[in-house]
Amino acid sequence: MRIRMTVVAGAATLACSVGLYPLFASGKWFWTGVAAVLAVMCGALVSRRLRLPAVLDPLCGLAMLLLYLTVAYSRGEAWLGFVPSPGSLSHLADLAGDGWHAANRYAAPVPLVSGIGLLVAAGVGVVAALVDLLAVRLRRAAPAGLPLLAMYSVPAAVRQDGVGWLAFGIGALGFLGLLMADAREQVGGWGRAVTVHRRGGELPLAGAEPPSGQRVEPDGGRRAASGRRIAAGSVAIAVLLPMAIPGVHPRGVFGLGGGGGAGQGTQTVTTPDPLVSLKRELTRLDDSIVLTYRTDDPDGPDYLRLYALDRFDGDRWTYSRLSSSAADRLSGRTLPPPPGLSIAPVHEVTTRVTVSGGVRDMTFLPVPYAPSQVSIKGDWRVHRQSLMIYSLNDSAGGRSYTVRSLRADPTAADLSAAVGYPADVVAHYTTVPKNIPPQIRTLAQNVTAGASSARAQAVKLQRWFTLTGGFTYDLSTPAPQHGNDLVDFLLRSKRGYCEQFAASMALMARILGIPSRVAMGYTAGTQTQPGTWVVRSRDAHAWPELYFEGSGWVRFEPTPAGAAGQGTAVTPAYSQPTGAGGGRPGDDALPSPSATSGPDRSSASPQAAPHRNDTGPQGGLTEQDAGNGGTAAAPWIAGGVLVLLLLAVPMALRALTRRRRWASLAARPRDRGEDPGRDGRGGAPGGGSDDDGAAHAAWREMRADALDHGLEWRPSDSPRAAARRLGELLELDAVPAEALGRIARAEELARYARTRAAEPPERLRADVRTVRAAFAASVGRGARWRARVFPPSAMAQARSALRDTGSRAADLADRLNDLPNRMRRR
């Protein structure tokens, strides 16, 4: 059965499953995996106990896994509460579909709702079945690392943070333990380990006795110790080396280097993908606090910007490569002036920001645009063209800093009057790839038809996205990866979240010749008390910034706001199509959108419209679902029931066999009025079958009891020889010895004698019980429990039945294959 290797394989699977921790909000998922692995292990052990073909090992494990999933997640629809039925299987399929939808709709870490818990148990169980097949049954422990590695690929693909070094180390040690256990069993298969006597590195002469007190150790002990040191060193190198290689770890050598200080020239900045970060923040279910801030802005706070994405390659928006030198360090000095801001009114704003300590890898600072001075400890730098604040070494998590910014207050007239752009702005911010589909170019022209200024075109684009275009805000939409996704959003599906809206408006603005880029960061959040605001993860946002000479880069808001969109998004006053503010006639003769605008921030206050609800028609996770992950008592109860059922199968088979043997005699009662010797065999009319059957049944029962209690049974012994050997071996008392003798004599007469005095079946049945009690008293407690719980005779009977069934099936297949030949011969 290879119980030890089975346990080691299961432990290795659980050790590697620790790498899934970044995907879940709590650790309850691990116990779901434990129950699944135990179920698979039980199924594999049963398969090997029955000596089934290797291909059936994973099938038995998966069958036990299905039983566990049925009890844990669909016992209400199952037969007898645990046997899979069409209804339970359908329920499991629906639950798996819900889990898959939730996993794709929300970003990690997610709560362990029922559907996701089912997927976790099924996934870990399948990996456990594959590892057990490769490492235990096929004795190929090294390839078993492939399914173990597959579990690490999931968090690596889903989360930009990957897997921590501790989780990787635990999984690596589990795999190394599997390899060591397999090697030990392979060496042990050659026999007992050879030991030599050592002292001071010298071997004794042949035939000489070792001196007293000399230590005896295996010859391979030193090699084994070397192997363990090599394994530990390999894991240490795999964990530490990436942290020491610049470029592999984003923060340089052990987080200390990569600063690009004086004399070091420039260094390329490596940061998380902004679009991936945006999707993850928007779909976090906990809606955790990202930062809090205080501001003295009399008009209320504006958005906090992290990134300015100025390049579009036809598929995705990205920012230009940031090459920083010592000259770009903040060092408390005034930042470069914002480009293009020369006409619009400006007022200075001071903002004090405190980032939550739970925020990790925030290497760009969220600041109001346009920052003029930033006071923060650490090595922080500014990108002069976009005024993004970033660091090569530090993270904003847990930090507090003060930002002074210049907030422009352009009017509609200021934007409408802006004409002409600098040549460098046009060259960089109106570039459009040649592979943009002509349908989008035509669409941009049609939407802005009749507009006579760049502002009027921008207002019409914004209004088309928020009101007249038929767009729907939907967080379940996948992030766009290719140009075709953009075409589908604009022309067909018209469903998306802020990334699609901002990217599409910025692209269409460039097609119209308006310099544009995509900004990402956070909305103003919600006000908790006068002057104090809280920004949560779902306030993450993307918006387009358009350039107007004299006003610089100004924000537009094409994403639907309010309860049906981004809950805290705010439409600027200068982008409202009111027709006032000095715009040209006809440019703004449009009804105003319903989104909140201007300095009135009532929609961002606690008493405003409720925050965006993401549990709309696409299906969300209710509080009840989040608390019912199937991981409380149900998995443990299911696991216990499965173990009890597994233990009960051999016992039930043994009891059923015993009952059938004696019941067959009771079904044919002997005619007591007949002469015992009438038929020449001392039996009942018809050949004495009752007497023979009772003797054979008692003998088989005694043989099964002997095997169950671990007593040696020699098939070549005669009944008398077997009884004599058992009696001498166990030193039986008079009563059990006489019972054993009667059973042996009855079997001997039934086999060889023509005439005999038959023993009554009741006497033989009582003798069998007496002998069984004597067997149990003569062996240890472990043997007695094995005879009761896991009787070997039942396992042998099951193997024999399976072999017979297989032989009959093979014979039937041969007959069916030969049937055409026989029909032709006829």
Uncertain spans, ≥5 residues at pLDDT below 50?
196-201, 215-219, 246-271, 580-587, 589-632, 670-688
Largest sheet: 6 strands, antiparallel
Number of domains: 4
Task: Give the strand content.
Answer: 5-15%
The secondary-structure class comes to alpha+beta
Output the strand order for the largest sheet.
Answer: 11-14-9-4-19-18
Share of residues in helices: 40-55%
How far apart are the termini? 50 Å
Overall geometry comes to: elongated
Mean pLDDT: 77
Rg, Å, rounded: 40 Å
What's the total helix number? 23
Number of strands: 21
Protein name: Transglutaminase domain-containing protein
InterPro entries: Bact_TGase-like, Papain-like_cys_pep_sf, TgpA_N, Transglutaminase-like
Keywords: Membrane, Transmembrane, Transmembrane helix
